[in-house]
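Worked example (supplementary).
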Amino acid sequence: MRIDLHTHSTASDGTDSPSQVIAQAVTAGLDVVALTDHDTTDGWAEATAAAREQGIALVLGSEVTATAAGVSVHVLSYLQDPTSAPLADAMRATKTARVTRARTMVDRLSEDYDLTWEDVVAQTAIGATVGRPHIADALVAKGIVTDRSAAFTAMLLPSSRYYVRHHAPTALEVIELVLTAGGVPVLAHPGAEQRGRVIDDAAIEELTVAGLVGLEVHHRDNPPAQVERLTALAARLGLLVTGASDYHGAGKPNVLGENLTDPTTLARIEGRAAAAVVRA
Ligand code: AMP
Ligand code: ZN
Ligand code: FE
Ligand code: FE
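After joint prediction of all chains, the assembly is encoded as:
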């Protein structure tokens, strides 16, 4: 069983439509794929239809933006009820805050580069959750950088003068919202050091007390020392261990199935959730 529990479509900052993500997952030989767009469930309907048609199991979810101790963290929510208002409202608020933030980043960038907000809009699907990858795509389209990775390294990381934060609920709040929606919260790439500061063991322990269920240990952005740390921490705290690609289509080098989650873990996630996995 090949299970990949973290991907993005054009409903956020991936470059494949939800049905293209499903088609790519089939091509990659996956048995199960999760669609986890940033702060939205907008891709769910299209992905569900495509998964039924193409004969692959689908885990519906979202990657919810949060903050913890001043650090931006991502909480994966699996199999929540998308009509649960508290989580849906919080994600909508974050989506709105992301637009203002992206515009401010573009304002700052436009002082040094030939870049306008229209350039970013041109790279963003209608209704999509806007993120730094869309700004990166606009910089690529303008010939200012060669690819998304170069854009991040040169001007989009938190250490850059162009970087702007946006409001998001705390990770504790997000976990509560996800649980209220019947979802299963898993901390995404908790050891992604090159993206900025990561939260420490005590903070993860606090989230576990609040109901965190798992850690995304096997992810390309967690370096070996972090995988070791997180594996031990998950064992100590009784947290599930997941693995996933964080596929974004052509926008990032991440390949579907490059990290996997074992079937027992998926069964535990589904067992705690309000909704079931979509099976063809
Ligand atoms: P944002 O949501 O605006 O904070 O941007 C976060 C998104 O940027 C995530 O989806 C990441 O996958 C993506 N990202 C972070 N670092 C990089 C990088 N170095 N290269 C390409 N994409 C990145
Ligand atoms: Zn993303
Ligand atoms: Fe993430
Ligand atoms: Fe992601």
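Two points are worth noting when inspecting this output. The radius of gyration is 18 Å. The beta strands are 3-4, 32-38, 57-68, 71-78, 184-187, 214-218, 240-243.
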